[in-house]
Amino acid sequence: MPKNKSSEHETALAVSKSGCDLINDPQLNKGTAFSLRERDDFGLHGLLPPKCASMETQVYRIMENYYRKSDPLEKFIFLTSLQDRNETLFYRILLDNLESMTPIIYTPTVGLACQQFGHIFRRSRGMYFSPEDRGKIRTLMDNWPQDDVDIIVVTDGSRILGLGDLGANGMGIPIGKLSLYIACGGIHPSRTLPVMIDVGTNNTDLLNDSLYLGINQTRLRGEAYYELMDEFMQAVNDRWPGILVQFEDFSNDHAFALLDRYRDNYLCFNDDIQGTGSVALAGLICALRETGGNLGDQKIVFFGAGTAAIGIANMVAAGIMEDSGISLDKARRCFWFLDSNGLVSTKRGDNLAEHKLPYARNEEWLPDLLAVVKKVKPTVLMGLSGQPQSFNEAVLSEMARHVERPIIFALSNPTSKAECNAEQAYAWTEGRAIFASGSPFDPVEYKGKVYIPGQGNNMYIFPGVGLGASLCGARKITDSMFYIAAKTLASRITREKLAQGNVFPELNRIRQITESIASAVIRLAYDQGLATEPKSDDILKFIQSKMYHPVYKEYIKA
């Protein structure tokens, strides 16, 4: 497409910077890997140690120092510092060690990094906009040096993972998500932009913290909030026409409203709603291959009724309708939701939030999870509450009492917020549970069998959807794109993985998975009449030609 004309496989790059300016540019810096010819041509002699090192030597040095650090937050800071000085080397190491490093650069460690953001801050990444910038956001966007940007991840910091309102500290989420876009989806680092819409925070600890970097006021509310977001969306699409905007970690009161407000007019999606729904549906499809039965036969209890839970229910309902040919209303009868006040029921006597109304049961109110499990006898238990240890022994034992292979998805992030851990899920169901979580857990041995729990990580889904939609110039992103992404992901699981209890494929295959999902999304966009770019004869080959690979290129004088 026009904004992605050049192939990332070109071996030489024309560079206009030299000397310290070149070394201090993290997107161009090679450090000790600059060749003798490059040191001659770009005035680097005397600015670097004399030995020219290979990337392999640099990787060895970085990993040696990385493994010296035992604390996850220190590892996070170490990798962030590397990213700040040499992006190519950072992404090489991340791609080679994705399974072990994803929990460091994203969940669960990114949650702690966000909590400590102002205290561990080293270098600014991305852009910040606040109510003080009203009327001039478009002008401020010209301060960003890149004229070709494909993907923005934006948050207002109001609901960071399961940690709640972290204000401007939430900037760690867009930064982390875009690192995954680059590593897993092959988006070029220069074509990504993390954004924080800083509308204040209601977190008094942050407001009283002298090192907090956000505006020191309570959250902007009402129409003024939406006017600021309208200005941002208009400005960003004027600066970079056709850009993809991914909404991340917005609170329930704004997440659904923003998605509905913009989804038909801009290329955008909400990863917490649509991405989470897609990856959970993929996991559920795979779990049913082990348990037997159809989606429409399941009784699914959701503990939590926020953006992620509703997103999963919407996606599973779409799957039920396709599999069974039933109406949406009938598909929704497979679900029971609990929030902080118990069963979401029309007979509860309180005013339900709008996003909960389609799933409210017209039946007797029940006060807690155990009461619902005893009455409903669900086959699937989804945890999206942010309430740690809420899937206790009584709840999981009751699940195992009435179903042979209970499906237990404890999806709250970070690890400290998980409804149960893997060991508990297997022990309290006598090893019969099919378990997945939002944050990673180590393999578990129970009665002589080793179980490998799956992680329902959105990184399986959003890089492929974003890459595909961007490459074909889609006018908008539809729920059906996430549905086809879920089915594509589910098709990649092996029988060996399922036998070990894992309903998700290996992370080391993530680029192949991304290519498959992007290809499916592109084909669907053409089928739906949403693609604006000419169709390639070989879509998969086209995708591969556009993917960024973290290798050093030969530099020549511009």
Write the layout of secondary structure elements.
Elements: E1 12-15, H1 19-23, H2 36-41, H3 55-66, H4 72-85, H5 87-96, H6 98-105, H7 109-115, H8 117-120, E2 127-129, H9 137-141, E3 151-155, H10 172-185, E4 192-197, H11 204-207, H12 222-239, E5 244-247, H13 252-262, E6 268-270, H14 271-291, E7 300-303, H15 307-324, H16 328-332, E8 335-339, E9 342-343, H17 369-376, E10 380-383, H18 393-402, E11 407-410, H19 422-427, E12 434-437, E13 444-446, E14 449-451, E15 454-455, H20 462-471, H21 479-490, H22 495-499, H23 510-527, H24 539-546, E16 554-557
Parallel strand pairs: 1-16, 2-4, 3-4, 3-5, 5-6, 7-8, 7-10, 10-11, 11-12, 12-15
Antiparallel strand pairs: 8-9, 13-14
Helix pairs in contact: 4-5, 5-10, 10-20, 14-15, 14-21, 17-18, 20-23, 21-23, 23-24
Task: Describe the structure in your own words.
There is one protein chain. The strands form 4 sheets. Strands 9-8-7-10-11-12-15 form a 7-stranded mixed sheet, sandwiched between helices. A 5-stranded parallel sheet has the order 2-4-3-5-6, with helices on both faces. It has 3 domains: 54-266, Rossmann fold, CATH 3.40.50.10380; 274-457, Rossmann fold, CATH 3.40.50; 460-492 and 507-546, no CATH class. Helices cover 43% and strands 11% of the residues. The protein is of the alpha/beta class and 558 residues long. A hairpin with a 2-residue loop joins β8 and β9. The protein has helices spanning 19-23, 36-41, 55-66, 72-85, 87-96, 98-105, 109-115, 117-120, 137-141, 172-185, 204-207, 222-239, 252-262, 271-291, 307-324, 328-332, 369-376, 393-402, 422-427, 462-471, 479-490, 495-499, 510-527, 539-546; strands at 12-15, 127-129, 151-155, 192-197, 244-247, 268-270, 300-303, 335-339, 342-343, 380-383, 407-410, 434-437, 444-446, 449-451, 454-455, 554-557. α20 packs across α23.
